[in-house]
């Protein structure tokens, strides 16, 4: 697998133009952005035993959860068949991970995704795993398919660190998207080097962070062992379900309705302004699997 | 908005920290290679230009104070959580206190000028240093190691343990002490709810300001104290406050959907009582603060 950062290549130069195209897209009449009236399927799978006493995921349990969720999402007979509906042998695949040191995407999950992608016929050297170096990574430059996988947490600028936000590294100057609580993060998904490439979204809910404090916005008293994964094709729908779980946890912990600050408005706007997917629960088909205790949703 | 934020961040990064009270070459506390069964081989340091690489999304807070340098180490031990130690040095003790105050929820640990511990995270300040020691998840062994590391650091720091003197103006009755926040940049005027994106009080990037929450019976309020260089600056700020909240020229109180708001000036200080549950609470608090200036 290609997991290194390389020198920035020509396609990065296109990112400025891409941003302009994104802005152009936003100026289209709303009707042209309207989503078809259907429901987005989101799988919530949980396992009471996925974490050890140090909150590290047990690889075998995590892999089984991931497989079961993907099989259900794709309505396939097994994991291999499920991945074959998402990935073709001639695809070049980028696994967009998240390496934030206090709550990173489990390496076991990255590896298991890569394993299933290889079983779908993709050579190992056509699979890249990266986070902050995607713009300089040849594997992502050539990617025809993206797998988006990251943990859910509260965030300084956007209210929540979400699947939608995980693609912010596909722009050269991420800080330019921080305005108005990162309201327009969904524009990144419309950029030419990103649009229509995402095949699967996985929001890791093993130990979500529901409130931020301290120098790193990470205080262990604000994580909890939820032991779950949220999996879907629609990143907005998956994020919206994750946000509801975080809000429910905050209500339970603080004993009052304490809204996420700043508000994660980018999730709702990803539907209403950018037409990326569904945030409205009425358009989300949530399927629950596995451990049911304290599901909060 | 985006352009404003970029300018804000860039300005913070390159702001000369001229109003510093300490020695620039004060030695950093030395951390041990091994302690309580943990050992370290990961170390790094940060300055005003690189801090954002270490603190994802949170560097602006530090840069808005007189942050100078940070050092971090990660300790590891088999079958135990990693322990991350961060020591941040500022140009002034008030600023170390200020950054600490922004994360304070319950001061429960007698260390340095004040500290709080919970679930594996210890935060404290002393003199020009703000220290974070984090073990996650917490284990009994890790908790002991966190405290041992913190004590090791604290005993090497000499100097200030008293909060900034401005805070002495807050009346004690009804004060929710852990809620006190101290700052010198207008960005943090919104720490307890949005007032304005603009610098309507003229705090700029150096004026001393503090905010605290009060509870009197069932009533609540938020109190700001802003200390200006002179009375004229305070009067100007009061006039802008009246304009912002549409307070009639001949009044000093207004009520809106967020509660009662009142203000006054004393000895070049702007006193603001915001979001009071009722007029009586607002007036009571304002009068109590006025007496602090007699």
State the gist of this model:
Chain A is an alpha/beta fold. Chain A has nine helices and eight strands. Helix content of chain B is 26%, strand content 30%.
Describe this structure in words.
The complex is a heterodimer of chains A (297) and B (294). Chain A has one domain. Chain A is 32% helix and 18% strand. Chain A has nine helices and eight strands. In chain A, helix 3 crosses helix 4. With 294 residues, chain B is of the alpha+beta class. Chain B has seven helices and 13 strands. Chain B folds into two domains: 153 residues, Protein Transport Mog1p, Chain A, CATH 3.40.1000; 127 residues, Protein Transport Mog1p, Chain A (3-Layer(aba) Sandwich). The N terminus of chain B is likely disordered. Classes of the chains: A alpha/beta (297), B alpha+beta (294). At the A-B interface, loops of A face helix 1 and strand 7 of B.
Q: What is the residue-mean pLDDT of chain A, rounded to a whole number?
A: 90
Determine the CATH topology of the largest domain in chain B.
Answer: Protein Transport Mog1p, Chain A
Q: What portion of residues of chain B is helical?
A: 25-40%
Q: Can you count the helices of chain B?
A: 7
Largest sheet of chain A: 8 strands, mixed
N-C termini distance of chain B: 42 Å
Oligomeric status: heterodimer
H-E string of chain A:
HHEHHEHEHEEHEEHHE
Order of helices and strands of chain B: HEEHHEEHEEEHEEEHEEEH
Number of domains of chain A: 1
Q: Which secondary-structure class do the elements of chain B indicate?
A: alpha+beta
Question: Largest protein interface?
Answer: A-B, 24 and 32 residues
Kindly give the count of domains of chain B. Answer: 2
List low-confidence stretches of chain A: 3-34
Level of helix content of chain A?
25-40%
Q: Sheet bearing the most strands of chain B, described?
A: 7 strands, antiparallel
Mean pLDDT of chain B: 91
Q: Looking at the structure, what is the overall shape of chain B? A: elongated
């Amino acid at each position: 697998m290609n997991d290194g950062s390389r020198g920035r290549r020509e396609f990065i130069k296109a990112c400025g133009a891409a941003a302009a195209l994104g802005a152009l897209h936003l100026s289209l009449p709303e009707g042209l952005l309207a989503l078809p009236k259907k429901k987005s399927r989101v799988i919530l799978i949980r396992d009471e035993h996925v974490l050890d006493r140090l909150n590290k995921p047990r690889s075998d349990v995590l892999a089984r959860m991931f497989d079961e969720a993907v099989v259900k999402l794709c309505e396939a007979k097994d994991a291999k068949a499920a991945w074959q509906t998402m990935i073709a042998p001639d695809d070049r695949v980028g696994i967009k991970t998240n390496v934030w040191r206090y709550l990173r995407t489990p390496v076991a999950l990255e590896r298991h995704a890569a394993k299933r992608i290889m079983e779908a016929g993709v050579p190992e050297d056509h699979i890249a795993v990266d986070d902050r170096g995607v713009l300089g990574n040849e594997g992502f430059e050539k990617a025809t398919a993206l797998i988006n996988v990251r943990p859910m947490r509260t965030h300084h600028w956007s209210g929540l660190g979400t699947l939608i936000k995980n693609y912010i590294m596909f722009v050269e100057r991420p800080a330019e998207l921080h305005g108005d609580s990162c309201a327009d993060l969904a524009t990144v998904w419309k950029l030419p080097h990103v649009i229509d490439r995402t095949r699967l979204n996985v929001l890791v809910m093993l130990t979500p962070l529901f409130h931020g404090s301290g120098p790193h916005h990470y205080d262990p008293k604000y994580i909890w062992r939820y032991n779950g994964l949220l999996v879907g094709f629609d990143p907005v729908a998956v994020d919206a379900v994750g946000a509801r779980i975080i809000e429910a946890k905050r209500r339970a912990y603080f004993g009052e309705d304490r809204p996420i600050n700043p508000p994660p408005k980018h999730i709702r706007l990803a539907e209403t302004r950018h037409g990326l997917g569904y945030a409205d629960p009425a358009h989300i088909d949530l399927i629950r699997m596995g451990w049911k205790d304290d599901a909060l949703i | 908005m985006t352009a404003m934020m970029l300018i804000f961040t860039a300005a913070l990064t390159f702001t000369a920290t001229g109003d510093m009270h300490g020695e620039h070459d004060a030695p950093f506390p030395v951390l041990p290679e091994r302690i309580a069964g943990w050992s370290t081989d990961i170390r790094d340091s940060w300055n005003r230009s690189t801090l954002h690489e270490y603190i994802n999304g949170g560097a602006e807070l530090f840069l808005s104070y007189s942050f100078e340098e940070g050092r971090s180490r990660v300790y590891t031990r088999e079958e135990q959580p990693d322990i991350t130690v961060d020591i941040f040095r500022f140009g002034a003790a008030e600023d170390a206190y200020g950054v600490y105050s922004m994360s304070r929820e319950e001061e429960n640990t007698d260390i340095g000028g004040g500290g709080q511990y919970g679930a594996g995270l210890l935060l404290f300040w002393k003199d020009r240093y703000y220290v974070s020691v984090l073990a996650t998840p917490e284990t009994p062994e890790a908790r002991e190691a966190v405290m041992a590391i913190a004590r090791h650091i604290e005993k090497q720091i000499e100097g200030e343990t008293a909060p900034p003197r401005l805070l002495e103006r807050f009346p004690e009755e009804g004060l929710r002490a852990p809620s006190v926040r101290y700052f010198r940049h207008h960005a943090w005027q919104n720490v307890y709810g949005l007032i304005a994106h603009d610098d309507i009080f003229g705090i700029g990037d150096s004026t001393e300001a503090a905010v605290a929450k009060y509870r009197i019976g069932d009533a609540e309020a938020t109190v700001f104290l802003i200390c200006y260089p002179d009375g004229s600056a305070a009067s100007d700020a009061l006039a802008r406050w009246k304009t912002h909240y549409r307070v009639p020229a001949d009044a000093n109180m207004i009520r809106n959907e967020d509660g009662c708001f009142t203000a006054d000036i004393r000895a070049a200080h702007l006193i603001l009582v915001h979001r009071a549950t009722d007029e009586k609470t607002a007036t009571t608090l304002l009068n109590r603060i006025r007496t602090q200036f007699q």
